[in-house]
Amino acid sequence: MIYTGKNTGFFIADTSKNPMEGSIPSQEQVRKCASNMILSASGWRKVFAISGDEEDKSENLSIEDKYLAGFIALSLAKHLNCFDGIKKINHEPITVLLAMDARPTGPSIANVITRIFISLDIKVKSLFIAAAPEIMAYSTLKKDSISSFLYISASHNPIGHNGIKFGYNGGVYTSAKIAPMINDFEKFSSNKKYLQIVKDLVDNTDIKKYEQVLNNIDNEKKLSLELYRAFCLEIASK
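^ that's the sequence the OP posted. Answer follows.
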């Protein structure tokens, strides 16, 4: 089923299409793509446009970059103690708040990440397109129920770039928190066994759960805007 934004008409996801369909790329190809990624506490970023042109407005990702999106999901899942580096861990309820800016490659990255989170029993609340302060306000006012937020954005960089910011309670993760996640990402992208792990998790996603996430975007977006307004008024009144 194809999902589009209620207010924008922008494409969100097609649950009938498996993004990992087909053969697994070589580890060398994936590692080469990963080597182009900037990894820091302020965000993880590269040119995700399939042509490699930073001005490319294409929505599509290469198969290698889809696997990088998978490794991003595994890195956060391991940090949240939902993945032990090989398999899913039984864990307490975990919720990740997910949003993106309007870059064309955002939905493709979110598609892979969301499927993997669902397969690891991580609950996803998706806002689709949201401003960075909006997701931060939501994660601040609902910090007791949001384990982490993941924001897909490359800030001020050209449209072909995209990236990830991780955070909690209104702020991005510190360098100390990000360092082990960077190590995990580099480990995942350097070992071919993780290609199969990503593919298996995506292949076995419970599509009904995925569609529940997508069907709830409008409700989450409405709540998000209400929280953002309340947070702005709170800041102003102080």
